[in-house]
Amino acid sequence: MKNSFASVIALFTILAGCGRSEVKPVDIYPEDICSFCRMAFSDPAFASEIITVSGEALKFDDIGCMEKYTKMTKENTIAAIFVKDFETKKWIPIEKSTIVTTDLATPMGSGKIAFNDSTKAKAYLQEHRGGISADSNKEH
């Protein structure tokens, strides 16, 4: 009986260690199409992604497409959202980003780009007078 109990405890310990891993973005490939507008990716530097709770990666060619999609979707199906940092072209979680609207020609015309650093986002808008607004997603 004592061995059975120890075996059950060991099994639960092993299973607890096998929990969900950290949600991460996936790569963009030339054959990928936007999950909202269904266009091919012309410039992955403006990409964003939603990873669903079921592990599906929804890829968007423009932050504007991702925003339109999220307005039509239940939040409880989204595990994470990632955007590309405009300077480094690396994925960052949306909650750690500052998204600004510019006059840049993004794939679907939203002009939205993301920065990992709000100071750099503000500096970009000051340098490029085409900037329209800064909408920080960072938690303060």
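Second entry:
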Amino acid sequence: MTESKILLNGIDEGIKTSVYTRVDGPESPQLVLTSIQNIFPEFDTDLQIQEPNLGKPSNYEFKQENVSLNNFLSMIRKQAILDTALDVLSINLKNNSTHFQILRQAAIAGKVAFNLTEKNPLGGVIEIELSGDDLETWIEAATWHKGRDTVPRRIHDERTMHNDGDASTWH
């Protein structure tokens, strides 16, 4: 018997999504856009993009709402970082809304890496905001994996990583 999986994407489940990043100075707007599209393939912009050159730095804001999380969720499954995602997506959870950041340098390589610092790291970040009724339950379902049958996890449980990314159970 095969196991059927229900894959979530956020859009069809009442979750409002917003993806945003700012491009300035010598950054290549085309590379930044590619990094976003590696994680969120449906992300598109109507902006006329020009690469920076001497005396004309980049100055763009890329933002789109109602972006599907399907590819993002698939990537964190493949990378086996669902428990980390559970913790990161819920660190700022308040009143059915949350926000988190992923690194653009990892995204350009087709990987998801979360930014857990207040600083803007080299290469910049992509900011993601999620909101919707019962968001906590949705996050737990979206990051669920078979291992939770053996080691159950919940948002803000005793196994939640510290805000700086250190494991709470491996010290």
